[in-house]
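Example S7 (structure tokens).
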């Protein structure tokens, strides 16, 4: 089983060649990562700081691998935006639509559809109803990838309250709630 994607102090990340930059995390404070970058001539340079998202972006761009076996591909497993992008691509292809044809149906540019399909779901929430309509599915199926079925399950009062609150949110706020929960999960 693959380890969960977690940034933690002491972790060493090495980027892919040709740069092969090495970063060692010193600490994680609130939304920031404090790290040292290994130089070619010196052991380690002074402390540097970036946001957690900035560090994750560097991991993706440099295709870095950690000393505990994590890689840039592990980042995608925790991204609701990426999952929605993959769902759009899957539905679009199943419907036999090109990115351009799908974009035209939405009254958008092909670049916007490409942007979504790569997990950068900026402003997608306002288009969810139309996307669901084009594919002939409910908004719930589009967002969650599954139908609502009545399955007997026992929930705690806290879980029931969370579900009620989530269902009362707008689509845009649901996406934000999912992202925030993802960040809390990553922080552990």
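Recovered sequence:
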């Amino acid at each position: 089983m693959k380890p969960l994607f977690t940034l933690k102090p002491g972790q060493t990340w090495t980027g892919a060649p040709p740069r092969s930059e090495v970063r060692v995390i010193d600490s994680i404070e609130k939304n920031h990562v404090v790290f040292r970058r290994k130089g070619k001539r010196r052991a380690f340079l002074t402390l540097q700081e970036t946001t957690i998202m900035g560090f994750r972006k560097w991991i993706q761009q440099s295709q870095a691998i950690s000393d505990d076996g994590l890689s840039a591909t592990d980042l995608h497993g925790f991204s609701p935006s990426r999952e929605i992008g993959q769902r759009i691509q899957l539905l679009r292809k199943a419907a036999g639509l090109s990115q351009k044809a799908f974009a035209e149906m939405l009254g958008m540019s092909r670049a916007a559809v490409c942007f979504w399909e790569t997990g950068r779901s900026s402003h997608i929430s306002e288009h969810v109803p139309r996307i669901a309509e084009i594919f002939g599915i409910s908004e719930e199926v589009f967002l969650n990838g599954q139908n609502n079925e009545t399955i007997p399950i026992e929930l705690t009062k806290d879980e029931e309250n969370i579900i009620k609150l989530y269902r009362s949110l707008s689509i845009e706020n649901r996406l934000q709630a999912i992202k925030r929960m993802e960040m809390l999960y990553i922080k552990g």
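Notes on this example. DSSP finds nine helices and five strands in the chain.
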